[in-house]
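Chapter review: from sequence to fold.
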Amino acid sequence: MKYLILLLTLSILLYGAKQESDETCDLEEVENITTKSSMQNWLDHDFGLRPYRVNYLLPYGYRDEAYESNIPTVEYKNIEAEMQISLQLQVANDLLGLGGKYYVSYTQQSFWQIYAESAPFRETLYNPEGFVIFPISDDDNYFRFRSLKFALAHRSNGQPDTTEVTFSNNNSTLGNLSRSVNYVYTNLRLQHKTLVLDLKAWIPFPEDPEKSDNIDMMDYTGYTSAKITYFWGDNMFTLKGRGNIETRKGALEATYSYPLVHNFFFTKIFTGYGESLIDYNNYITKFSVGFSFSR
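The token string follows.
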């Protein structure tokens, strides 16, 4: 059953993402322009939602050793599937007279132990955001400034505080499975021809050390990142690095995508800390391959 679900999801991704709906209506006799437009949007399933980050399904992700499990009776493998859904909606435009565009977005990333016996989800991350993007007109520099983004965001794995949970058979503790962080960030985008550079910096909200789920997370993820996106014909390459200068911990991530009939071939290599929240302090090197239906 688990492989059937994976195959069905993959089929939808490969063949259904850009197919037009067979459900139609005759709108020729609809006289009111507003009503006609509303009906057409309904038929087109067009309500302003657009891809935000890359949307993908990676059926095969491999690392050199098995993932650690917080539950003694559950064993994870070193291969798993990974998927991400990321959408944005523009909610306002030019509120301050500076040309800014205002958005809300939602990203959900899941790590699925599809090859394990019970096929559990190792972790699912939830990342809502609200942000504004100000365009920048620059034709003078080698790397030309294109936009400046300010955002308010939340990222968590949706788990409760399980610090007091114990196992009756051996009186061992489960530990706290909850991981979350609230933060603000800014992103400066620059461009030189087919190369795009994103420089990002973020600051987490202050937390009470006695109540924090992950007081030392920033030691492993850092406060800044730089991402290069490069286009060569139909090929798209990205390279992203982030880290903490003081602790010398961080991560590198490289991706490659190429268009197929309806979607994209997509592959990713990650090495470092913070692949997911539950094991943000574990060093992981992982290769994943699959498909995406946005870039």
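Two observations follow directly from the output. The chain has a mean pLDDT of 88. The helical segments are 2-16, 33-44, 217-221.
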